[in-house]
Every structure is written in C-alpha cells, then in structure tokens.
Amino acid sequence: MSFFKKQFKTICLLLLFVIFFAIASVVSIKNGKSAFLAGPAIRSLLFQMSAGGVMMVGMACLLMSGSIDLSTDSQALLGIILFAKLLQIKNSAGNAAIPWGVAFLICAALMVAIALLHSFLCNKLRFMPFIATIATSSVYSGISTWWTSGGTVAINRASFVNLGKTSILTIGKQSFLPVLFIISAAIIFIYAIMLIYTRFGRRIYLVGGNPMAARLAGINITKVSTILFVNNSVLALIGGLMWSAQKKMASVQFSTAAPSMSGMTAAILGGVSFMGGGATGLGGAFVGLILLNTFTYSLNYYPIFTEQKWDWLQITLGGLILIIALILDATSAQRAHRQMLAARKKAVQAAASKA
C-alpha cells in the first residue's frame, strides 16, 4: 500500500498517458487505420522526445539540488552553431579538416567554461540562479543570432546526420525505434541509478531538500552545484546535437523549439520539485516526458489544430501545462511542510509528556 501512495502521482500520469494515447489513436483514424499508431508517427514522436529527454536529465538534477539554469537552450544553440562551423572547415585538399568527434570535444569544452561561469555567478557572487542565467541566456542568444545572421548553418557530415535518421526494430517495411531515443533512454536510466544508489546522488537530494543539514553533514554545496552546472551544460550540448542530427543544421529555430523547457515541465510533472528534491526521481520525470510529448504530438491529429490560425492555442496549452505543474509542485511542498511541522509538534509534545 505504501508503494502506491508514494507512486500515486506517477500512476496518475501513466493513466493520463493511456487516455491521451487512446484519444489520439481514435481521432487519427483514416480509411480504417490510425495514423497515430503508424510507424512514421511513432518514430517521429520518439525522435521528438530524444533531445528533450537528455536535456531533461540535466535540468532535473539541477532542480533536485534547489538550483536552475534558464539559459540551457541558449547554451545548446551556441554549442551546435560552433559545432556546425567547425565541420565546415576544410583542409588544403578540400576535405573535412576536423572529425565530428573532435568538434564535439571542442564544443564540450565551451560548455564547461559556460557552466563554470554560471557557478561563479551563483556560488561566489551569490546571484540568484534564475536571474543570472536569464541574463547570460540573452548573451548566448545574441551571439548565436549575430554569428548566423539569424539563419541556419547546414550540417552535411554523413556519419553524423545518419544518427538522426537511423532506426531499428523493423516490422514489415517500417522502423519504429530511433537510435537517438535509445541513447536518450540509456542516459536517463544511468542517471536514475546514480541518483538512487550512489553517494553523490543522495547528496543532490540532501542539498536540495535541506541545505543546512547538508552543510552540517560536511557536504561541499558549491562543489555539488558546480558539477551539476557542468553536467547540465554538457547534456544540453548532447541534446542540441541530437536535434541538429535530425534537422541537418544548426539554427536559431532551436531556441523556438525550447526542448529544455519542455524537459523541465516534464520533470516537474513527474515529481521533481521546483523547490528542491524529487520524490519520484527520474523515473517519474521520464513518465512526465512521455505524457507531455504524447499530448503535444497528438494535437497535430485533431482537426482544429491542423489550421494555422489555431497555432497560438498549442503554445498557450504548453504554458498552461507548466503552470499546472508548478501549482501541483507548490501544493505538494506546502503539504509536506505542514506534515513536517505536525510531526515536530507531536515529537515535542511526546518529549514534554515524558518529562
């Protein structure tokens, strides 16, 4: 029984996922077949979740520690533009001069530098994380727009872009499971295990849930925060490159897609608290990711959303989902606080009665 109480929110999310999936399957029926259940639709949905899933992990870990980075999309945008520019460098023979693996390492070094800057602003200068990262986000977006003149940079390296279209699990003539989604799911699984079974994972929860107790326990909060900023920035780059591999380009359109914001929404929906901690960990966040993406993707199969004049409604619904997630998070935090106060009062009364 205690298991169901602890996982109640996750179970509700799973039920919602089943409902949205069933509705989308029915409304998309044409000529006796459901377009939503077809291989191309499922593959497209899984591709859509890949980049957001990776970026969700970095955002969720920061949220669990009581911090946040609102420049994640802008960092990734700057990183993928640098990546695309590096791939365009040619040697004297006219061939590619830099392997894309080396380009990735160079971009990762940039992400580490950015993360260290954020750590310095938040941990040394004591800026509030959301204020500091909103400011730096504008800087990264401005540089990216200037560098590309607001356009795109094509990526034609076959060995890289093939990752964006390769799928396995072929049934008939259709492939259902993208390699990028497998990579994303593997990253989520590895981090979920880390958060549950490692000392560093438990420290993340403690720092976010009770910073004072963490300090008294001898945990270096600045070190934990710095590691998580670096982790978030590198994962943002990986998520951005997943998007670029699918689109075969680096573009300011990436900021419009905002996969990190959908990842943050999914994490909060799944039980990660905006105020630190997370009862369901990445397992609940992954369920939230599936639910959110299934919901937004299924909207494309409703007749009303096929008309361009209703595009604003999709954007509005995305914002409303985040507001609802934050309300649920705040309500849950207040309930937990009241329970803690009640338990403390009961313990004081018990101690007084014994005395």
Provide a brief overview of the structure.
With 355 residues, the chain is mainly α.
What's the pLDDT, averaged over the residues?
82
- Shape field: globular
Q: What fold name goes in the CATH topology slot of the domain at 14-260?
A: ABC transporter involved in vitamin B12 uptake, BtuC
- Count the DSSP helices: 15
Largest sheet: 2 strands, antiparallel
Strand order of the largest sheet: 1-2
**What's the helical proportion of residues?**
over 70%
Query: Based on the structure given, which CATH architecture of the domain at 14-260 is correct?
Result: Orthogonal Bundle
Low-confidence stretches: none
Q: Helix-strand pattern, N to C?
A: HHEEHHHHEHEEHHHHEHHHH
Number of strands: 6
CATH class of the domain at 14-260: Mainly Alpha
Beta-strand percentage range:
5-15%
What Rg do the Cα atoms give?
A: 22 Å
**Oligomerization category of the chains in this entry:** single chain
Structural class: mainly alpha
What's the end-to-end separation, in Å?
36 Å
What distinguishing features does this structure have?
15 helices, globular, single chain, two-stranded antiparallel ribbon, ABC transporter involved in vitamin B12 uptake, BtuC, mainly alpha, 355 residues
